Amino acid sequence: MFSSRFDFKIQRMLYSKSAEYGISVYHELDPLPPQSRVIGKVSINNAVPSMVNCDYTDVVKLEKWKARKVGGDALQITKITLPDEENSCYGISANVIAFDPIEKYGGVGSDVQLSSGYFVVMQHPVTTEYKLARKQVTETLKAVNSIDLPILWFWPNVDAGSDGTSRGIRAFRESTENKNIWFFKKAIGKRNQP
Q: Within 10 Å of residue 141's Cβ, how many Cβ atoms?
């Protein structure tokens, strides 16, 4: 008797990752990276009927595909069932893991929900126009603050004019209602003070 079962439960769907996105695989006793969370579970018991090969590698590949579709960053395998007389395929149960960039990299700003997508902004001053850096970043900030999706904004490098860019960002944060922008200041792994 051939039976197949493919269960997939998601607690919080994130944006889908591209086919090239590498999904990490952890086993039950492996430590997970800091700021990771379980967003769902996937379980394959016996082969999905359309699968020709169902060895361990193929089943993990299918689970990675499912994790990628819901925005997962990793799988944490919790159970492996070996093939036997009744089932010629591996069975695997796993948690789908996501990493939170805000918790991981810190920063300040509005609470943003990334599940519906987001924009990334990186604005460095034009070094030959360093005196205009503050004005230029202020215009960009006004424009992106009107967008309905979250904005992940990366603080500029230390270049000529970056003081003006940083002052413009700080002035914006202090004088304007920030609806949707999270500013990454440093990659220190926790939220920074405003």
A: 21
List Cβ neighbours of 4 (8 Å cut-off, separation of 6 or more): 45, 46, 47, 48, 49
Identity of the amino acid at 178: N
Instruction: Kindly state the helix (H) or strand (E) to which residue 181 belongs, with its residue range.
Output: strand 181-184
Tell me the pLDDT tens digit for each residue of 160-186. Answer: 778 888 899 899 988 888 778 888 876
Specify the DSSP element, H or E, that contains 77.
strand 74-81
Instruction: Write down the pTM of the prediction.
Output: 0.56
Q: Which strand ranges, in their side-by-side order, compose the sheet holding 119-122?
A: 108-109, 181-184, 151-154, 119-122
**Alpha-carbon span 123 to 182, nearest angstrom:** 14
Write the Ramachandran bin of 107: left for phi over 0, alpha for psi from -120 to 50, otherwise beta. left
Encode pLDDT of 18-73 as tens digits.
Answer: 666 678 899 988 988 777 888 888 888 765 555 567 788 888 888 888 888 878 88
Strand spans (E) along 87-158: 91-99, 108-109, 119-122, 151-154
